[in-house]
Design goal:
Elements (H helix, E strand, L loop, with lengths): L2 H41 L13 E4 L4 E6 L20 E6 L16 H14 L7 E6 L1 H12 L4 E7 L7 H8 L4 H6 L4 H6 L1 H4 L11 H6 L5 H13 L3 H7 L4 E7 L7 H8 L5 E7 L5 H4 L2 H9 L10 E5 L4
Parallel strand pairs: 2-3, 2-4, 4-5, 5-6, 6-7, 7-8
Antiparallel strand pairs: 1-3
């Protein structure tokens, strides 16, 4: 190799090293710093103490009838603030931020189903929403929590309105379903979910916003951390045995509402689950996706307004479309 070629090769190696150094400085180090900060922020947080860490909540409405609203994964109590005039004159509403989400505390916690139930119980008892006439409304993960709460305290509630209930056979089915979603959703549901959540300050911008989320709901989704997301996904969404819960509340009045185009919570799984109840109604919203409430909140409001007068026999299944409800 002549001298000119050696100089050229040396120059190319030097250039490559400089490029790698720039990439390291500009991209890798800041990303690592963000991940490390998010990790230690959670690890250094105090352990959960239900006596000193009450949930954030809000009470709206003037009516005598009572409703508790439970949001889904990464959601907040603000999810439900749509066209409230259709409901708040006849009902008193308890909107709650789950532990680890919204403006509720974010302690170092297991974020298990039992932990969430105990945190909710304190608010419900304090505000006297356990009078036996209250309806629970839950969406997605919040629907799972609502059913568990109903099973644990059957005498506290009249029944439930359940939207977008995620029913999975196992973790493999969950991963298979998520594999058809956008890149961010696939990563967030993979073994890299925890790392992805550590970097959510980067990902939580409009470039990555799903089309079916409103700007305000997406903005509130920033208010979780990697532990509350990853643990809730595993402990509540994937591992909860819904069929065992169902055996405790088969005769409770429950209205299931599900979009037939829901790609997050499988439609057929939810319908099959609802059919195990003896006093339930399954409303199919044609062309509705996982966030059908954001498109038309009146779907939920009408179900609530009709709830006291609803007579359900032999697991009646009612099919509707969004513009006909």
């Amino acid at each position: 190799m002549n001298k000119a070629n050696k100089i050229k090769k040396w120059s190319l190696l030097k250039f490559a090293k400089n490029v790698l150094f720039i990439i390291l400085i500009v991209f890798i180090l800041p990303i690592s710093a963000i991940a490390a900060y998010e990790y230690f922020k959670v690890i250094d947080a105090p352990k959960y103490n239900p006596e000193t860490m009450p949930l954030n909540y809000e009470i709206l409405g003037l009516g005598e009838k009572k409703i508790i609203f439970i949001h889904g994964l990464t959601g907040s109590k603000n999810y439900w603030k749509r066209n409230l005039k259709a409901i708040n004159q006849t009902h008193k509403l308890l909107l709650i931020d789950l532990l680890g989400f919204g403006d509720s505390p974010k302690p170092n916690s297991d974020y298990s189903l039992d932990t969430q139930l105990k945190a909710l119980e304190k608010v419900i008892i304090k505000e006297n929403f356990n009078d036996g006439q209250t309806i629970i409304v839950g969406h997605s993960m919040g629907a799972t929590i609502a059913l568990a709460l109903l099973a644990k305290h059957k005498d506290w509630f009249d029944g439930a309105v359940i939207s977008g209930l995620p029913v999975y056979k196992d973790q493999e089915e969950f991963k298979e379903i998520m594999s058809g979603h956008a890149v961010f959703d696939r990563i967030a549901s993979s073994k890299y979910a925890t790392l992805t959540c550590m970097l959510h300050p980067i990902f939580m911008n409009k470039i990555f916003k799903p089309d079916n989320l409103t700007d305000d709901v997406f903005k509130d989704a920033e208010k979780h951390n990697w532990q509350s997301f990853a643990n809730s996904l595993k402990e509540i969404v994937i591992q909860t045995d819904l069929y065992t819960i169902a055996t405790e509340i088969k005769d409770k009045k429950i209205i299931f509402i599900h979009g037939d185009q829901d790609t997050s919570a499988p439609f057929q799984n939810a319908k099959r689950f609802a059919e195990t109840f003896t006093n339930a109604e399954f409303i199919t919203v044609k062309n509705g996706d996982h966030q059908l409430f954001l498109k038309d909140p009146n779907i939920i409001w009408k179900a609530i307004n009709q709830f006291p007068n609803t007579t359900i026999k032999n697991n009646k299944v009612k099919n509707i479309t969004l513009n006909e409800f």
